[in-house]
Design a protein that fits this description.
The structure holds three protein chains of three kinds. Chain A is of the alpha+beta class. Chain A has three helices and five strands; from the N terminus they run E-E-E-E-H-H-H-E. A three-stranded antiparallel sheet of chain A has the order 2-3-4. The longest helix of chain A is centred in the C-terminal third of the chain and has 17 residues. The N and C termini of chain A lie close together (11 Å). In chain B, helix 5 packs across helix 6. Chain B has 13 helices and 23 strands. Chain B is α/β, with parallel strands linked by helices. The chains are: A alpha+beta, B alpha/beta, C alpha+beta.
Chain lengths: 84, 450, 347
């Protein structure tokens, strides 16, 4: 999986509220979305994040791959991340 | 160690005017059971998609409706509207509850007779009645509702030929202040056509004039319209009585009461704006009491209610085949049931309940059916919890018109089961197979060789 | 005592929630908390911490009654609400239907019945008024273009062509009526109301009925300034017993239960009042009634609680309201709370 760098302007609140200080846009994410974003903020590899989720959650590899790609695409569309 | 429940990661952008976490759509609390029977068990045993009909719900709804009218008017007779749902099991529940049959074609007439309904208990409506079907109806003593003058003369001719009397009523169309006016069926009241037809009938000794019939429209949201309509029928009946002393057996006010499904383009849900059945009953019976019949004679009030009695009792179980994202970023779900099975999705915003526990997060989604046709869209915009491949959903209130207007198009029609009052499950219509569909086809000899 | 109020969207076309709350707070008898019920995370009222204690997002009326009821049940478990005052048109049918279920939770309301709501609808009001000798502009309910030809036999041009929910256009001849009929019917559906145009000055009355035919209070107002959206931005209380008596007569005939706004036009030749519309809730200018000596919002609370309420017999004439906008400053944290949790605590 490709790796992404999360924008330094993105503030992630504990309750899943996102504030992009450079654009003023706000977002909400669900629990697992927040978890992924926080890991990305810590510069964890996407691959690592994927493995951790597989360990912790009741989900098949296939479904997770599809959902994770979809989520990263959304982040990319909203310009919250940059591909590296 | 137990793993945590998984919900797909979701991000939603906050947009002006859409900052309501409940979304703009209808309630979708999980519905894991129908009448106490587990939805996923049903799907496993009878496969998905699957129509499910609740015997209990039909009986409850019918009994409640009868009670509401009976407490306002002494003589009430329901007639089950076959076209709304003519599966034998469904009709039989209504007949066991005391309903007669209301049919609009020879096909439906034969169905009712085959179920053991006697001719006198059949109201024969509709603009198309063949000589054959009218002959049967006259011989069986069925109640024939005449739609137009050509039919009136057709019946006169047949009664002469058979040398038998026919029991008839006329269908009257009238202006009840609603749009659109249903003036394509029956004889018009305002221009005097109805009175003319009645006059013609009264001078024909082979015709027993026993009733008047109206049907002002479908999904009527105003009880006032019934009040006006019945009041006009009553005026006709009063005239008839004054002129020839005719006392009618019944006044049939047709159907048209809405169900609790919300129409597309209707902002507030049906439950909030529709009059209650009690209000319809008040409107109808108050006009009926304008009848000036001698003594305590009262005609029977006949109701051909369909939709309002069966819609809630039907559910459609469907499976999520795939989830995808459309070009504009919107979530799309593909169900294994489409417009081929759910004809009513063209005008209803059907509520959809997930059949398993879901996360709290919801997404605005567009729902497609399985057909490879662009029109196969069940809902343009519905807020649903996150669903994944193979999840089950229950599409609610589908009992009316779907199991009669469904299409054998691209794919086959599925099983229909009835959950009985004791929670046992009966297969009431087997899913179609290739053999059944091809049975009536004939392949010309020269086309057989490939 | 906790009172929950909707319609605290004090935007350029404000809901009546905030003025209703001001009335309750300034009654001098209210010692409790106000809960804001909102539909959007940015409804201004939710951020007005001087008058609203906590706010909760509730589902849109189109979301269905079950969802709305579940949400109110949840809020009630946390807040223990005594009275709910819905103030927006689209909510009223839903809350009216939930009345008994809310009462089982111990929540009181003071609402018109579904029948009354239907009766004051644009398509029904004229017939009702004619029955009770209340002047209304003549009107035709057109369900097809055919019906439009009736105009010439009934009244003169110009006429007002109205949608069943919103929209109104003045048409000077048949062609314009056809054009308006088509454009409005595609948007709002049928029927279309074609109303006689009455020329004269507009007057409004804010009133409260006890549901038995008695009018608790009624205050007459003339708009002084109207925005380009047609909303009154300032107005003055006026003294005209004829207007107030007429309002009381209407409230009596319809036995209105709850607050209402009556819109009249005073025909310039005859000087008679014609009822144009009846809005089934307090107007956004209801605070003017408080200032003029009739605290109608608080009276509604007392009625909901089943307390005795005395009729108001007079009010101060010449009181003016001037609406203004105000930039409230808050931290993104508040917006975050309401967006994510659907609720906000104003500490």
């Amino acid at each position: 999986m490709n790796n992404y760098l999360i924008s330094s302007n993105l503030a992630i609140s504990d309750n899943g509220f996102l504030f992009m200080s450079s654009t003023g846009e706000t977002f909400t994410v669900n629990e697992i979305g927040k978890h992924i974003l926080n890991e990305m903020k810590n510069r964890t590899d996407i691959e690592k994040i994927r493995e951790k989720i597989l360990e912790e959650y009741e989900v098949s590899e296939q479904i997770l791959e599809k959902d994770l790609n979809d989520f990263l695409n959304q982040l990319n569309t909203y310009k919250l991340v940059e591909e590296i | 160690m137990n793993k945590k429940n998984y919900e797909r990661p979701i991000i939603t952008k906050q947009q002006s005017g859409f900052m309501n976490k409940f979304g703009a759509s209808t309630l979708n609390l999980p519905k894991t059971e129908i009448d106490g029977v587990n939805v996923s068990d049903l799907a496993n045993e009878y496969s998905s998609p699957l129509f499910v009909i609740s015997e209990k719900k039909i009986r409850e709804t019918q009994r409640n409706a009868l009670r509401i009218f009976k407490t306002r008017y002494p003589k009430v007779q329901f007639a089950w509207s076959y076209k709304t749902n003519y599966l034998n099991a469904v009709c039989s529940v209504f007949h066991q509850e005391g309903s007669w049959a209301e049919v609009v074609s020879e096909f439906e007439y034969d169905r009712a007779r085959k179920l053991g309904i006697s001719g006198e208990h059949i109201f024969f409506n509709g603009p198309h009645k063949s000589d054959d079907s009218l002959t049967k109806a006259i011989n069986d003593g069925a109640k024939i509702h005449i739609d137009h003058f050509d039919e009136l003369y057709q019946i006169i001719e047949l009664t002469n030929k058979l040398d038998k009397k026919a029991n008839v009523a006329i269908r009257v169309n009238l202006d009840v202040g609603i749009y659109p006016k249903w003036d394509r069926f029956g004889f018009n009241y305002e221009n005097g056509e109805a009175a003319q037809a009645l006059k013609r009938i009264s001078v024909t000794d082979k015709l027993n004039l026993i009733g008047l019939h109206m049907h002002i429209g479908t999904y009527m949201m105003s009880s006032e319209a019934y009040k006006i309509g019945v009041s006009k029928l009553v005026a006709l009946a009063n005239d008839l009585h004054q002129q020839n002393g005719t006392v009618l057996e019944y006044i049939d006010i047709g159907g048209g009461f809405p169900s609790n499904n919300t129409l597309k383009g209707q902002y507030l849900p049906a439950e909030q704006i529709l009059p209650t059945l009690e209000q319809y009953a008040d409107a109808i019976t108050s006009s009926l009491f304008e009848l000036k019949y001698p003594g305590n004679e009262l005609p029977t009030l006949v109701l051909e209610t369909g939709r309002a009695l069966i819609d809630d009792a039907g559910s459609l179980i469907s499976k999520v085949l795939a989830t995808k994202r459309l070009s504009d970023g919107k979530r799309a779900l593909i169900f294994d049931a489409g417009v081929n099975l759910l004809f009513t999705s063209f005008w209803y915003k059907h509520t959809i309940s997930p059949a398993q526990q879901t996360g709290l997060y919801t997404e605005n989604s567009k729902i497609f059916g399985p057909l490879c046709m662009n029109i196969d869209c069940l809902n343009e915009n519905i807020t649903l919890p996150t669903l994944k491949k193979n999840d089950l959903v229950v599409i609610n209130r589908v009992g009316a018109y779907n199991m009669t207007q469904w299409m054998q198009f691209i794919t086959l029609r599925p099983n229909v089961v009835m959950i009985m009052e004791d929670q046992s499950v009966e297969l009431i219509r087997e899913g179609e197979d290739l053999e059944y569909i091809m049975m009536k086809e004939k392949l010309p000899e020269k086309l057989k060789k490939l | 005592m906790k009172i929950a109020v909707t319609g605290i969207n004090n935007v350029d076309n404000p809901g009546p929630g905030v003025p209703v709350i001001r009335g309750i707070r300034e009654s001098g008898n209210f010692d409790g908390e106000i809960i804001g019920l909102i539909y959007d995370a940015l409804e201004p009222g939710a951020y007005m911490d001087s008058i609203i204690d906590n706010s909760y997002i509730i589902p849109y009326p189109s979301g269905g009654l079950d969802l709305l009821f579940e949400r109110i049940k949840y809020i009630n478990e946390k807040e223990n609400i005594d009275v709910i005052i819905p103030t927006l048109d689209a909510e009223l049918f839903g809350f009216a239907k939930l009345e008994s279920k809310l009462s089982e939770l111990g929540i009181k309301t003071f609402l018109p019945s579904t029948e009354q709501l239907i009766l004051r609808g644009k398509d029904k009001l004229a017939a009702f008024c004619e029955e009770h000798d209340i002047l209304v502009p003549k009107n035709i309910l057109a369900t097809s273009q055919q019906d439009i030809y009736e105009i010439s036999s009934k009244y003169n041009f110009p006429v007002v062509v109205k949608g069943i929910f919103y929209d109104a256009v003045i048409a000077n001849n048949l062609d314009e009526v056809f054009a308006a009929f088509n454009s409005i019917s595609t948007k709002w559906g049928l029927p279309i109301v074609i109303q006689e145009y009455i020329s004269g000055e507009e007057y409004n009355v804010c009133t409260l009925g006890d549901g038995l035919g008695n009018t608790i209070g009624a205050v007459g107002m003339k708009k002084l300034y109207v925005t380009d959206k047609g909303k009154g931005w300032s107005g003055v209380t006026i003294d005209d017993p004829v207007l107030i008596d007429l309002a009381k007569k209407i409230m009596k005939e319809i036995k209105w239960k709850s607050g209402a706004e009556l819109e009249f036009i005073k025909e310039k030749e005859s000087n008679k009042y014609y009822l144009l519309e009846m809005n089934p809730r307090f107007p956004a200018w209801v605070y003017l009634t408080v200032a003029a000596g009739q605290n109608l919002p608080y009276s509604l609370v007392k009625l909901a609680l089943g307390e005795e309420v005395k009729n108001f017999n007079k009010y101060e004439v010449g009181k003016i309201f001037i609406r203004y906008s105000w930039d409230l400053i808050t931290d993104i944290k508040q917006f975050e709370n309401i967006s994510v949790n659907g609720e906000m605590n104003n500490e």
